[in-house]
Design goal:
This is Zinc finger BED domain-containing protein RICESLEEPER 1-like isoform X2. It comes from Camelina sativa (False flax). It is found in: Nucleus. Its main location: nucleus. InterPro entries: hAT-like_transposase_RNase-H, HATC_C_dom, RNaseH-like_sf, Znf_BED, ZnF_BED_domain_contain, Znf_C2H2_sf. By secondary structure, the chain is α+β, with helices and mostly antiparallel strands. The chain has 23 helices and nine strands. It has helices at 52-64, 94-102, 128-142, 152-161, 170-193, 246-257, 276-286, 304-318, 320-333, 337-349, 366-378, 380-389, 399-422, 433-447, 453-482, 488-500, 504-527, 533-536, 551-575, 587-594, 599-609, 631-634, 638-652, and strands at 7-8, 23-28, 31-36, 42-44, 199-207, 213-222, 228-237, 264-269, 300-302. The strands form two sheets. A five-stranded mixed β-sheet has the order 7-6-5-8-9. A four-stranded antiparallel β-sheet has the order 1-2-3-4, covered by helices on one side. Helix 7 links the parallel strand 8 (264-269) and strand 9. The termini are far apart.
Length: 669
Amino acid sequence: MDESNEIILQKSKRLTSVVWNYFERVRKADVCYAVCIQCNKKLSGSSNSGTTHLRNHLMRCLKRTNHDMSQLLTPKRKKKENPVTLATPISFDEGQQKDEYLRPKFDQEQHRRDEVVLSRGSGGRFSQERSQVDLARMIIMHGYPLAMVDHVGFKVFARNLQPLFEVVPNSTVEDSCMEIYMREKQRVQHTLNNLYGKINLSVEMWSSRDGANYVCLASHYIDEEWRLHRNVLNFITLDPSHTEDMLSEVIIRCLIEWRLESKLFAVTFDSFSVNEEIVLRIKDHMSQSSQILINGQLLELKSAAHLLSSLVQDCLEAMRDVIQKIRASVRYVKSSQSTQVRFNEIAQLAGINSHKLLVLDSLGNSNSTYVMLETVLEYKGAFCHLRDHDHAFDSSLTDEEWEWTRYVTSYLKLVFDIASDFSRNKFPTANVYFVEMCDFHIQLIEWCKNQDNFLSSLAANMKTKFDEYWNKCSLVLAIAAILDPRFKMKLVEYYYSKIYGSTALDRIKEVSNGVKELLDAYSMCSSIVGEDSSFSGSGLGRAMDTRDRLKGFDKFLRETSQNLNTTSDLDKYLSEPMFPRTGEFNILNYWKVHTPRYPVLSLLARDILGTPMSILAPDSTFNSGTPMIADSQSSLNPDIRQALFCAHDWLSTETEETLPLSRQYALPA
């Protein structure tokens, strides 16, 4: 055919189909053709012919030449108004592209791991390998089951979205997830090893429906820019025959694996009661490397939220028989519509204006039990009237049981309010806990004075458990409060006078001495940084130039003025006016600004404020038992389960849509 008479036509606005991105519209005489820019084949270009035949040709043509077909399913891009010319495909090295995508990058300014990218390479060509990595990241980030790649619905969706994409088997996705895990692990390892300051470790037990047990180990720290971080380090499957003392071995292995022995500041356990042998083994290992301990006081801490959850369970267990009667009462009222109507009429006659609905609680969810008790108390008058006038109602409470219910509900309300305060911040700093735990301590003392034997005995048991927590954590709580410039030592003096009475001065002196001893330890560590490069890595300083002829003089200066400088640093902070308690206050911003003024004290503040005083999700405070992993995760190989759990946590900081604290892998409450 003579092509000299062919005219390339400009594409009009009417040519809206995306297939025209791949064709030139030419005219010869009165006949219009569509010329494929890939193979130059001519097809009918008449407006009456439609575009189905063009699309079918492209699906075969592009697949044969390994070009991207995703544009066939996306809106047409705006074209320039000049005639369309043949485009030469831009080649690229797919292997190099994958390499760049998977290679660890440690530059914080250049590291952009979670950008939304298309699964195509340079020039718009489709990349199977890149798509597999994107699929693995999606599964990790959102907690999707690995088996989703075997689902028919997913295969149909993927095929329609990108026909070139070959759905890979489960094992291949696992390999991609492991690659991402190893890459992210190197990044986290690099960050921790070059961290400015110490690291805290939290230990939390998990379980599954099939009875398996797991331990989640996470690091907590404040970085050089005074930002609080939390990173899951390990999610280890415990052997079914494991004993409690094996937990210490797990923790020690974690410290060795991540090279944190010389950086560890404190370990926070989820349980209020931990086998002492576990702590002793960890202390023995830490004593070989750690230089900042006050008789081991700061090494072992307990989670405040777990303590409160345990106390809630104790209350509900003590009230078990009464709660059973309350459930029966609610069931009776809701047994029929006529009974419900009559109960509502009785409530109105009794002057009860509550709009709350009577609902039964959910087993295992103590929050719902608290709501049920609180609602029933508002209808007490109606239930008492029902007791006196309805002989079929046989589950009524006695006056004494109503009194117990009122007191216990007040206990639960206090715990609920404290948990709500904790939940205001995603990762609260340690200073926010002192006031709440002191108020709870004072209230426990008052509850123990109750004249009712049942209530006073319950309060005494709660206080015994609380005292065990308080003996372990009170010093860290108090130091964190002192490091809050809005309160300093005055807040400790105020609360200790209420808690300890005549012995308050001795207790306050213990806190004061504790701060000074700890600060002395920090001062010594900072003074030997120039001689110890390993401590330099922890960020407490930088090694001196070996050619500095005055290095000996600097050492002499540090040794002779060490105590004076430490004392003046702390005394200067305490003697200055307290920061006003008005408006928004960010304690980390305060210490970031005041680091030059209090160089040694700021080191202490960084590590104390970064200590996890609570490691339970705020919405889990009233849930009994340990958190449970989803069924789809419990059946996985231990290595891939850990990879998914940890990588999910590491990637979750990159997007607001992902749940924090790896809760994507937990069963709903």
